[in-house]
Specification:
Blueprint (H helix, E strand, L loop, with lengths): L1 H12 L3 H13 L6 H13 L3 H13 L6 H13 L3 H13 L6 H15 L2 H13 L6 H13 L3 H13 L6 H13 L3 H13 L6 H13 L3 H14 L5
Helix pairs in contact: 1-2, 1-3, 3-4, 3-5, 4-5, 5-6, 5-7, 7-8, 7-9, 9-10, 9-11, 10-11, 11-12, 11-13, 12-13, 13-14
This protein binds one RNA strand of 9 nucleotides through helix 1, helix 3, helix 5, helix 7 and helix 9.
Length: 246
Amino acid sequence: FSSYGKVINVLSRERENGTALMLLREMDGKGCKPCVVTYNIIIDSLCTGGLVTEARDIFLEMIGNGVSPDVITYNSLIHGTFKVGNWKEATRLLNEMKEKKIKLDLYNINVLVDALCKGMMVAEEAMVLFKVIEDCGSSLDVWNYNILIHGMCSIGKVETAKEIFHHLSAKKLRPNRRTYKIMVNGLCNQGLLNEANDLLQEMEEGNCSPDGFTYNIIIQGLLRNNSSLKAKQLIHAMIERGFSAD
RNA sequence: GUUUCCUAC
């Protein structure tokens, strides 16, 4: 609660972790009890700063103080732990979560799947996880798919990524600009420039106009493929449109 | 009140 909570929130946003931590100590000293949210904010900002060990200390400290971690605490910590590449510890935390029967919602699953895709290259497993979720009747949103598609692309499974992408429209979910970018990027990396071009058309026709990056990705791909003529054409098309930023 | 997605050269 409290004004301390608010100040800590602000400090964390400004990446002033040191100061935020000092405030936390001060709270302790004065007998003010930080609540879960306060801890969560600090843990998360430590994690995004790569200070996972410190985040873990706070995590243990909060338990010591009788404050039980919730889904968000675990998410932040797990996500941070994965990012640092410590998947062993992250999986341990995941299991710990299961044992405590902390229930995940879609948002939380995203965090985990993202961590899985990036940290462990087990996008296939993430996919399985999604299927299970779907079978349970929860519907996935575009973000989930973006994460998955990106995961597939980054391990070179563009075919699977394409399947998922099509699966998207079958579900009447509109891909957003990021979805397209991820796909275009993935296709280009595999040298599938024609398909990337098709997608670009689709973007222009739909309501997701491509931005400068999207063009550049394709142009880059064309050049790598010795299609400098097409690249030039595309550059012109790009200039005519006066491409917009994200 | 706090946690998740893309960004080439």
